[in-house]
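Good morning,

Both structures are done.
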Amino acid sequence: MEVCLPVDADAAGTRVDVFLARAFPERSRSFLARAIEKGAVRVDGLTARAAVKLKTGSVVRFVVPEPPRAGPEAEEIPLEFLHLDEWLAAVNKPAGMVVHPAKGNWKGTLAGALKWHLERSDGGLSQAGGPARPGIVHRLDRDTSGVIVVARTEEVHHALARQFERRTVEKTYLAITQGQPQFDRDEINLPIGIHPYQREKMAVRRDHATSREAVTRFEVVERFRGAALVRVTPKTGRTHQIRVHLATIGCPVLCDGLYSGRTVIEPGFFGLPPGHPLAGGPLLTRQALHAARLVLDHPASGTRTEFTATLPADMERTLAALRTGRL
């Protein structure tokens, strides 16, 4: 639902976020802030940031997001716990699993599985992120596998969130790229904002209202003909950051439907004959991106703690096919 709100003289000079808070008193400030961050607010046709000050006669258009549901139902879904104590948990999220409920994805989420495994035991899950995100401090894209950390108390949730905000959490990903980076190691420092035409995508955009600083460092682990295994360490945490940055340098993540144009990688893509041991079906049906390592300060002990998740079978099979040298 889109709402059109004219700005009168009494509202002139008011910030966009304050203006919306007055217009929608039933909505929380955090709800409105997330909507603004996602580009749901336009002033005189231009996407607006929260701090933009309004002028008399301007028109604010607000695409009002659906309010979050009460919360996910507990679902008996197997999870691989990499670490579990009374303060936090680390999970190896499988590809294809949405982290928390959203439109079109109310079932089968990590949040629902966490409720089943942890809310029935002592300690439960933090509710600091709201009822739809029990324990969720950060997220991974649906088709990105790997390490995700979960808070079990509100105090731990806030402590972990501060570490992510201050960028003291070390995140390491492994990606198989379509195409080879020019350099063995490099840093990509390009701002990311909402794509100008496709709202489900992000894009490198300079001087745009939705743009935010984004920094990604990478090094090539292994090169193949027309592809590479790359270790990626993002220094910021923008939506689709790694996927956008690698695509921008001409090396999109393999099988990334949004940024590479491919949604399935068959063995024939690597030149494997039908009788080859690795030719028994698609090698990849999702982007070849895996959160392999996460390092943070444990909120209870202060000890620097590392969580790692081994490369999943589909990426291992893809690398085995690449190593045949027939790409």
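Second structure follows.
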Amino acid sequence: MTERANYTASELLAVMSARLLTDGQIVFAGVGIPLLAATLAQRLHAPGLTILFEGGVVGPFVVPGELPPSTNEQRCTRRANMVLPITDVLLLLQRGYVDVGFMGGAQIDRYGNLNSSYIGDPEAPKTRLPGTGGGNDISSLTQMIVAMKHEKRRFVEKVDFITSPGFIQGGSSRADSGLISGGMYRVVTDLAVLGFDDDTREMSVLALHPGVAPEMVQENTGFEIEMNGFAHTEPPQADELAVLRALDPDRLYTA
């Protein structure tokens, strides 16, 4: 990879993720890169995009330089359209009002299943993770975008636990399990933009970021990944980086 002197890997994740969002969408976003990406999209090309937070907030205005550290924090509520009980927000998912779910995870496999519960043996895990929160609801009922660093320890053959379902075991297994809507749409990493085959539901490379060779993606993936016919993304532009840095001047999420 060529040297990236003008943006960090986290800034790249936020910009590439923001480009996937469109005006008029309702986006269920977590904190960190998902929040930054959704807000960046609002500021630049999707003024009608509505953000939902798990804590119950619908349509907040995120103040530049005052990013909330949690979806339950009071800064999430500024100029919001409404603040609901968490159960009512999750009911919006079940009623089909949410277009996109947007979050990260500790592990992901070839079918887009996410693990944010634990690493290792369930009886004696090496690492305990935050758990599901609303992640299972979101991934079960929306089109999902996942943003995460591209590392072999994260992109694994089989996740240690399915916290948030992707396409389960591929093919029709998601629908056969009763999840008849939603699914994994895109995975955005610091190396590439990834999608899923319409039939097999296996992960594949759609586009490589500037300076990334195909071999780098495979070296950082714990399973064979399809790479036929990929494109190349445009690097983050000056206006995208300027807005992003105004939102997060202290590099809370983009260091």
